[in-house]
Amino acid sequence: MTQFSISVLLVDDRAVVREGYRQLLQSEADLHIRGEAANAMQAYQRSCALSQNVVVMDVSLPGASDVEATRRIVARSSAARVLMFSVHDEMIFVRRALDAGALGYVTKASAPEVLVDAVHSVGCGTRYLSSDVAQGLATRDALCERPSGRSLSAREFEVLQLLVQGYSLSFIAERLGVSEKTVAIHQSVIRNKFAADNGVQLARMVDRLGLHFSTGAVGFT
User: Fold this and answer.
1) Neighbours of 206 (CB within 10 A)
2) How far apart are CA 166 and CA 77, in angstroms?
3) What is the C-alpha separation between 28 and 167, in angstroms, rounded?
4) What angle (nearest 5°) sits at the alpha carbon of residue 139, between those of residues 138 and 143?
5) Which domains does the chain show, CATH number per domain?
6) Which of 52, 60, 119, 146 supports an S-S bond with 34, CB 3.0-4.6 Å?
7) How many CB atoms neighbour CB 4 within 10 A?
8) What pLDDT does residue 139 have?
């Protein structure tokens, strides 16, 4: 238990989910919800406007990239503490979140009290990983075997998510607010990093890495 009050910004695109988190966290006397956000851009804007100790952020949010939002939040304030709360337990998601500056990562398969413990720990400036994530990082050599996924830039990772969902270059360009030529360049770079000659090979490589992308995750322009 902490000896001081911890204020929290909740970030999830579903209001009913945020309400569940609110009720869970506010059952602790030292945890207080400062505000909410429905997407990563709102998360960044409200973290700038509000004074909170911990940002609890979902992964694969609609709108801007959660990873890029985390990077911006942390870059703006060295005291910023971001806790990722995600359905994804694949190590590439974990590693990218931590690389972006997140201080904790908890999967939604965890028991409710794990989230409470994580907020307390991150609020005190201590890294927290749910047991499944900690085990994955400690036991898998996959992080060393998968340099391609980790070497992608934030924008390339966003383009990859949309490519493997079957979206066209024109759709991705419009979604990300860039030119189709820019998307084509990103696609070429991604294929090169994954040593894939075409879309089929790229999809197979992504599947081999165990990545499962949900729709709607796009980034800052």
Assistant:
1) 22
2) 37
3) 44
4) 80
5) 6-139 (3.40.50.2300), 146-208 (1.10.10.10)
6) 52
7) 8
8) 54
Tokens standing for residue 119 = 């907020």
Tens of pLDDT, residue by residue over 138-192, are: 655 444 444 455 567 777 877 887 887 788 899 898 888 889 999 998 888 888 8
For residues 63 and 206, the model is more confident at 206
Amino acid identity at 136: G
Instruction: Give me 37's structure tokens.
Output: 């956000």
The interaxial angle of helices 180-193 and 199-208, nearest 10 deg, is 60
Q: Which of 110, 83, 209, 103 shows the shortest CA–CA distance to 157?
A: 209
- What six digits make up the tokens of 95? 């590693």
User: Tell me: the pLDDT tens digits for 22-31?
Assistant: 999 999 999 9
User: How is residue 213 annotated by DSSP?
Assistant: P
Region 111-117 average pLDDT:
94
Q: Name the DSSP letter for residue 214.
A: P
For CA atoms 83, 36, 212, 186, the dihedral sign is negative
d(CA 152, CA 6): 34
Q: What is the length of the chain?
A: 221
Q: Residue 35's beta-bridge partner residues? A: 9
